[in-house]
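Box S2. Input/output pair 1.
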Amino acid sequence: MLNQRAVVAGVGSYLPEKVMTNDDISKIVDTTSEWIVQRTGIERRHIAADDQNTSDLATIAAKRALDDAGISAQDVDLIIVATSTPDFTFPATAVSVQYNLGNTTGYAFDIQAVCSGFVYAMTIADSFIRAGNASTILVIGAETFSRILDWTDRTTCVLFGDGAGAAVLRAQPVVEDQLEQGILSCHLRSDGSHRQKLYVDGGPSSTQTTGHLRMQGREVFKHAVGMISGVVTDAFAASGTTADDLAWFIPHQANRRIIEASAEKLGIDIDKVVMTVEGHGNTSAASIPLALDVAVKDGRVQRGDLVMLEAMGGGFTWGSVLLRW
């Protein structure tokens, strides 16, 4: 192991132009905007155009992150795309992004941990950098969840949207007696006994179809707050920090009630919580980098800030990443 850490050098995001409001959805299924807002906090979501693939969304977010970092695509050693809605069964969506960016010197792969995908991908990238296997990594969360929704199921179709977010991680030597910058702690968990609570009812091996998203909403909510709190508490313990030390808490944007309940249980001031769920909906693996980019670009996240990322997704999978901006 080298004495170096993964530091976020740039971020970027992309939301498709088409906006679907709650009123739009109420014309498709039996629901109301008031009902959706009360139970989820969601007011609108973005939907990819018919000719947009997940790799297209990811590529735009990636280019914006590279511009923010002030580097070219050729400087990237590794591209990791977290997605549950790939362009194809294979090749990996990351390979398409690599091609779109014109990167010819690196390598690329996808990871699939549903809504926890970006946290998992950041953890993998951190491990690669600490081991010296890469010095510049592009981490992307990108989804076109609108393609796997059952638009007759009002319990799920109101929740999700499309989008992409990206972060550039670069290796930085750890210097003694200086404030630690970069990723400080990563904690991942999964429990396959819950896989039927949030899943897609299709796949190449099982049904030879894409399938649709299915969810036991009450069961997901029941487990979410406890699981999220556990990995965040682990991060505090590993880093010797507390909720009071956090500048920002950037959770997976699944549901306002889950976010608020988690913050309350962890003792995190609600003013420190970055929430974009009202305008993005649940964009699965894209939700954290989308929210992070918003908070960076509007000036909330500043250098030196302690930032906590966390997510929970189907499977169940869940995890946290604590970093110093």
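Box S3. Input/output pair 2.
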Amino acid sequence: MDGEKQNGIGEKVKEAGRAAASIAREVGKRMFGGGLTCVNCGTDLFSDGHFCEHCLDTLPLNSGFICDKCGRAIGEDYPVCLECKAAMPTYTAARSAFVYEGDIVRLVKKFKTGGKYLAEAFAERVLPTLVSVFSDADLLAFVPMTNRAEKRRGYNQSELLAAELSLRTGIPLERELLVKVRETSAQKELSRRERAENLKGCFRVHERKLCRGKTIVLVDDVMTTGATANAIASALFGAGARQVYLLTFASVPDRRK
């Protein structure tokens, strides 16, 4: 993809984002002392959306060169990053709204640790990609948690984000489609190969008939190595899915970026 085409997509996504913000406002906003404030910096908002103009200009939007397959930020205009070239992901394609760095890391952590209200703000930013890049989606799914893990946290943040996107687009959200059948070890310190082995067989498709011939968008808050998405995509393709896309609020950039 050449630079001019990539810039054109970036502008298209920004325009769609502004339109999505208007829709989001009708759905509801978080209120702070009677006024609307930016979810990132806390400054008062005087326009639609959950982020102020300054934050939208300074936060690491994933709008530069990206890998056509995994959607990660890359340093140069190549079709696919070296990681995908070495081991092509199972899912069809992935995209994210932001690069996982700076204040985005803090926001994602807050989303996982009680900040359920951020689902609206996150949905606002990923909605343009869903309606423009993954416009052929038949249904939405999310990365499931075990019952024990979800009870411990109190909610599944990926489900909250998927629900907001379903509300805004009308694309059905299949809450019972996927099941995580066992707990897995913490993935943070594991290699790519170790992560894949750790996740092997831990996701199951509960409603297989819903997958047959369908294009499914898997929703999550952040993509790190993509091992989770690969494991789930394998299960969905095994159940007859036609295409499996991954849509996240943020993604870790290519390490050689």
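Caption for Box S3: The chain has one domain: 3-251. The mean pLDDT is 86.
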